[in-house]
Structure formats: structure tokens, C-alpha cells
User: Fold this.
Amino acid sequence: MSTQVTTRDIATACRVSRRTAQRWAQQGKLSAIKQHGRWVITVPAALDTYKPAQLDKAAELIRDGGLLPTALVGRYTAVSSDGTVTYLVTVDTCTCQAGQHGRRCYHQAAVAATEAARTAAHRRWHAA
Ligand SMILES: [Zn+2]
Assistant:
């Protein structure tokens, strides 16, 4: 399964400017196509374990800038929907209530999509 992300997601995931991410798309360093004037990048991601509603919330979290990379690769902080709590998230773990109970949460889905974007950009970069 694959998922679609934007240059902004790539920029967040790779800690580069949005302009750099757009340049990567233009140069073919990302598997990107232009749709309605914006780049849509397809990345392979294992997101089929998540419910569609979780994927929607994950996309919203990324779009709102609520998911931020930490100094450690693969670790992110996510802001709760009411903005009062910050969780520490990886692909497999999350400090939110669902995550503490071993359940998949949309924070993890957001990290999975972002990490897939980062890996895809990285791989393309080195293959070029
Ligand atoms: Zn969570």
C-alpha cells in the first residue's frame, strides 16, 4: 500500500525548506506528479492497519503542523487535538492514552506516513 503526501510533508520529514522539497519533486528525486498546480508525492507506507478516519486525522495533524521531528530520527512530538498535551510518538509507540494501551493511534499513522516520505526522499536522493 502507498500513501500520498505533499512537499510540505517531505519538508517536515526531511527538515528541509518547502522550496527544497519542491525542487526535489521537479528534479525527479521524488516520485511526484503535479496535480492542480501542486505536487502530489506517492510514498510506499504500511498504513493498512489504520482505519480511514485515523488516516484522515493523521493527515490533518501533519497539515496543521502538529507533528514535529525531535533530535532523534524516527521520534516525533504530536500535539493533542485540543492543543493542551504533547505526546512522544514513533511508528510503533505513542504516549497518548490509546498508545499506552497498545492500540494503534492516528499519531502513529502520521509518523508512519512522515517516515515513509523521509525514507522515499532519502532513497531517491542517493539513487540519483
Ligand atoms: Zn497516539
Q: What stands out?
A: Strands lie at 2-5, 32-35, 38-44, 67-69, 76-79, 86-89. The chain is about 45% helix and 20% strand.
